Amino acid sequence: MSQTLKLHKNIKRVLFTGISGFIGRHVARGLLDSDYQITAIVRPNTDPKRIQEFAKKVDIEKIDLSDIHSLESFLNKNQFDYILHIGALRGGRNFFKTDFYKVNVIATEQLVIYALTQHSNFIFCSSVGVFGAIPKELPATETTPRQEDNYYHYTKIEAEKIIHKFVQKGLKAAIVRPAITYGIGDYGFPYMLMKLVDKKTMLLPKKRVMIHLTHVDTLSDAFYQLMNIAFKPGSTYIVADRNPVELSKFVDFISWELSGKSYPRNRRIPAKFFDWSILLAHLLKNELWTSRFELISRSWYYDSRNIYHELKLEPRDTIPAFKVAIDWYKELR
Prior knowledge:
- This protein is of the alpha/beta class.
- It has helices at residues 3-7, 22-31, 68-76, 97-118, 151-167, 189-198, 216-228, 247-259, 271-283, 287-295, 305-309, 318-321, 323-332, and strands spanning 12-17, 36-42, 59-62, 82-85, 121-125, 172-178, 181-182, 204-205, 210-211, 214-215, 235-239, 245-246, 268-269.
- Strand 4 (82-85), helix 4 and strand 5 form a beta-alpha-beta unit.
- The chain is globular.
């Protein structure tokens, strides 16, 4: 990046974590054409292909967020106006709990301490998982009880506690809690659904299940807006599509887009079989499959109205907005 650009008075310095991930890539793309000078922290062993599009547009700093000493040393030598902390170890990954805690909690604390000292705006990507995979009340709101139903959710809850503690000391922070996010390039839960529907192996419970997803562009817009407004310190935003959708109708929509037919009705089974599967996965201490069985057999949705009122975001409806993910999936297959 040229010295002229770095010295431009309108350039805002941004420290960015998570740029190699699905959400981070989309958020970063939305900032490239604006007056931001981005420094991205990436793991030293990150596949170059995952950050290739940013190689000549942002400054890359190779630091593992679990290496707290290196992170602290780097922060002490630099100044930033904004910190967008999106990087994290996600649930279901093959890491030790100590790694999850270092990356998701202790590294967050280091970034928070730095932001408070430097008077930087701190925007944190948390998760609706702080309410558990299945919230105790629907729609989930800021007052909904937190659930430490898996270790990933526990680390996000702890990170939020740290942020709120430092807000009381003067930290200018906002917390963004996306629901499960979909879009081009995501291989998570939505991709799994499309693959199962495509192969006609998706089993549905014989009951009404409501789910609530997030278009990645809505999430990117939320981060961009928070970079450009004077938000109230400690503000929290659940980011999700305008309304939840009924799982069976959603599966039908995917099926029509993929094959031109409704999803077979004989793929519905009694809900109790999912209850047994959840119990078995829990007994086997398999957090990933426990969550997957829960997500397709129980309702989960959230109150996201404040992102449309306060952040002035464009409302999106999962049907038909999810078509962007389906078209991408069709290209892959």
